[in-house]
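To the wet lab folks,

You asked to see what we're planning to order before we commit. Fair enough. Below is the target structure as tokens, and below that is the sequence we designed to fit it. If anything looks off to you, flag it before the synthesis order goes out.
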């Protein structure tokens, strides 16, 4: 999708029925030259608008249950980068990766659980579930592709694999935005997907350094978005 208004740049999942609870991996390719604290990923529930948030591509931080932790990276430099964050509740282990290299390895929010049936938005920060957008915190001047969410904390080896291939279905996959921009909700597609924008050219794998996939779609449902482009 091509987005020409910072106030309406997003993909929204209403009442996400299979949000990760005890562990997650969030991974995506991104490119931006935005000078604002843009938001790639925002999940909000009633009473907690920062239930799970990846915020400020000028200096990425993870917000979990309202508390924040720096991910030690600043990927908004106008080039394509692969970003991944893994976390598990059992021991609080958190790791962040930029282009396959570990940037953060520590402990955070041990014993916490993420609530279900909230609103997920890609490209906007939420000040209330499903709304409260601030154009200064929107994803600007770039694109997101191959975004995936899993309900396990993947290993460094598995994160490296995510960098080099398109999204494949697995029992741990909760959400996927594949190379062709198809929004795939793995919760049997019971979640309503709202896409704000208009069709854009397909994302080209050749523009991503090191990418070895062929870009084959794994469409099983949902709504076609082709790609996420942000102006």
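Sequence we intend to order:
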């Amino acid at each position: 999708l091509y987005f020409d208004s910072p106030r309406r740049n997003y993909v929204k999942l209403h009442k996400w029925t299979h949000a990760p609870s005890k562990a997650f991996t969030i991974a995506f390719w991104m490119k931006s030259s935005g000078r604002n604290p843009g938001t790639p990923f925002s999940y909000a529930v009633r009473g907690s608008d920062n239930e799970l948030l990846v915020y400020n591509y000028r200096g990425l931080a993870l917000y979990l249950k309202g508390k924040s932790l720096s991910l030690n990276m600043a990927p908004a430099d106008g080039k394509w980068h692969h970003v991944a964050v893994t976390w598990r509740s059992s021991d609080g282990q958190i790791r962040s990766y930029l282009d396959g290299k570990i940037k953060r390895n520590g402990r955070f929010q041990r014993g916490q659980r993420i609530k279900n049936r909230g609103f997920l938005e890609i490209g906007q920060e939420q000040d209330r579930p499903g709304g409260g957008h601030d154009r200064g915190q929107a994803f600007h001047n770039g694109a997101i592709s191959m975004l995936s969410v899993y309900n396990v904390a993947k290993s460094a080896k598995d994160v490296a694999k995510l960098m080099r291939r398109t999204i494949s279905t697995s029992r741990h996959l909760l959400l996927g935005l594949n190379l062709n921009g198809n929004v795939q909700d793995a919760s049997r597609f019971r979640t309503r997907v709202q896409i704000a924008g208009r069709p854009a050219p397909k994302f080209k794998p050749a523009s991503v350094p090191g990418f070895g996939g062929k870009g084959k779609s794994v469409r099983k449902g949902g709504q076609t978005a082709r790609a996420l482009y942000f102006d």
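Structural context that might help your review: Residues 91 and 110 are 5 Å apart (CA to CA). DSSP finds one helix and 17 strands in the chain.

Thanks,
Computational group
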